[in-house]
Amino acid sequence: MDYALQVKDLSKVFGQQRALQQVSFNVKKGEVFGFLGPSGSGKTTTVKILTGQLLQTAGEVNILGKPASKMKDADLGRIGILTDNSGLYDRMTVQQNLDFYAKLYKAAAGRVEEVLQLVGLAEDKKKPVKKLSKGMKQRVLLARAVLHKPEVLFLDEPTSALDPGNVQKMHDLLRDLNREGTTIFLTTHNMEEAAQLCDRVAFLHEGQIREMDAPNQLQRKYAKNTIHLELKNGQNETIENNPTGAERLYQYMQAEEVLAVHSDQPTLGDIFIEVTGRKLA
Amino acid sequence: MNAARISAMLVKEYHDAKSNVQVLSVVIVPIFLAILYSRMDGELDFAASFVFIMAVTFVTMYVQALLLAEEKEKNTLQVLLLSPASSADIMVGKSIISVILTVIVLVVSMLIIDVNVENPIMLSVILLVALILFVALGTLVGLLSENLVQTTVYLLPLSFVIGFGPMIQMYFSEGIVGDVLGYTPGSFMMEACLAAINGEAFSAYREDIIWLVGWTVAALVVTFITFKKKSLSK
Ligand SMILES: Nc1ncnc2c1ncn2[C@@H]1O[C@H](COP(=O)(O)OP(=O)(O)O)[C@@H](O)[C@H]1O
Ligand SMILES: [Mg+2]
């Protein structure tokens, strides 16, 4: 199997604080992997270690087959990073910023115009970065991270500053990029986003992975064995998914009482609470 | 090193610096002094040497330190370090811009002061060594400061001692203050520049040049070690 990321027994200690404990996961090439956890659970620390910005206390971390701490300049050209500590040159315009990074990364000609369109900033390209709103800056940062069509893209809470319309645009962009082969490692505390974008998710809680699978697999695994009935008389009833429940449903249907039948499928957010006993965000 | 990336750095620094008020204001200092001196009837060799020292402390060292510290403060340095550009590309690109600015300031000041230089080749060599020294010092200050305010805190005493040291030394030529100031790079640069302008025999200022080169080597070594320690290298 060809892996973009391989993490085995990763631990990180800051002084007394154990930020990550025995974290293990693999991300296949071409996968969109979601790292979900509340604030302080260790998401950013993981991204920093994966991108060689921070050294782990213990464990093995490989990116594109090489230890993350041994990445050379040429290897850095194969990855893209968007984190909360990414900056821009705020006296320069959007276009001047992107032109600069395009040259550093030797991105294809015309790529700056292309990504400006993709993130919806073509109209604003002549504006100095300091005049942009937080959401627009976030989109410039995303544009920069994807300029060179990286093989692996790291996104640390990329949509936290965006309004819903732009979140949608950004998801489209990420899907297109993924279709062209980019592996995406995404951290978020937005469960809906993860359910929409990710092939697989890991739940991080207090520096440990508590659960990891495809969103629909998790929904199956944590499915409740109940069904909701909405009746014509305005009442609701929850029945079990068993012969007794079937009998009840049969009776209501015989009496032509049933208005609607709802499954009781948990959302990723519900599952997270069940697994960790803690709410996200 | 990669020429395309260094030139990208240069274009970026140019776009960024042309609207940087702090950079523009330090560039004015030596030129203003040059204009002032050209209107007074003092000794031109001294005026020119003093303006040269002002140029390397206020333009080379300040600009280098400010640009680097700002990249740290605004989190753009981290982005550069995570790019395929090498540390050498980044640092050389940054240094070239402060050197270019200084050279412009030096040429303009020379034209304004209009001093007759007896040994222009030697003067160029001295200025080149000084440029390297002050690029290193500026880089060091930039590396040690976490933000722009801190840069100013380091730079003020440093530029005062180095820049005005030779002036102060004239008034305290006796005693410990004068002795100590006599060993600062500004003092050696002053002596060497004066001698080159007046076309003195090399033996007269050989020692000053040796000291200046010594300072430069020391500054380069300390800056390089700090660079490694701050894990900015990759
Ligand atoms: N440089 C650091 N020094 C000390 N503690 C840190 C440092 N970085 C992160 N931590 C701690 O590690 C834990 C995980 O932090 P982080 O990875 O930033 O979480 P997240 O990104 O999920 O919000 C937190 O408890 C945080 O306080
Ligand atoms: Mg974080």
The gist of it:
Chain B: The chain crosses the membrane at residues 21-40, 46-69, 90-113, 125-145, 152-172, 209-227. The complex is a heterodimer of chains A (281) and B (234). Chain A is an alpha/beta fold and 281 residues long.
Describe the structure in your own words.
The complex is a heterodimer of chains A (281) and B (234). With 281 residues, chain A is an alpha/beta fold. Chain A has 10 helices and 13 strands. Chain A has 2 domains: 3-217, Rossmann fold, CATH 3.40.50; 224-264, no CATH class. Chain A has helices at residues 43-50, 73-76, 94-104, 111-118, 134-146, 164-179, 191-197, 215-221, 243-254, 268-276; strands at 3-14, 17-28, 32-36, 58-63, 66-67, 79-82, 152-156, 183-188, 200-205, 208-213, 226-231, 236-240, 258-263. The model of chain A has no long low-confidence stretch (mean pLDDT 92). By secondary structure, chain B is an all-alpha fold. Chain B contains 10 helices and no strands. In chain B, α1 (3-17) crosses α5, α3 packs parallel to α6 and α7 (148-171) crosses α8. Chain B is globular. Classes of the chains: A alpha/beta (281), B mainly alpha (234). Chains A and B meet through α2 and α3 of A and α1 and α4 of B. Chain B: Keywords: Membrane, Transmembrane, Transmembrane helix. Chain B: GO terms for molecular function: ABC-type transporter activity. Chain B: It is a multi-pass membrane protein.
